[in-house]
Hints:
Blueprint lengths: L7 H11 L3 H16 L4 H8 L3 H9 L6 H11 L3 H14 L1
Helix pairs in contact: 2-6, 3-4
Amino acid sequence: xxxxxxxxxxxxxxxxxxxxxxxxxxxxxxxxxxxxxxxxxxxxxxxxxxxxxxxxxxxxxxxxxxxxxxxxxxxxxxxxxxxxxxxxxxxxxxxx
Length: 96
């Protein structure tokens, strides 16, 4: 079997590229859209997350990624369920 070992550097490059995909852009836009629908500022979301406003801004701009546990907390801070957020994201991704 001819298996190629993936190095840590390779993994970092793959991870870095995923924030530049169209779907990740839709993800970031949806985070902001939901925040605005809930009439929340970045500062208010940051307080609910016990983070800084800069953190929220970086996530919305794509400079900082969220993992699924962070997304779950983010959704709770926005007052939506993770299930609802994912449902809306899937609908947006299918439309593109």
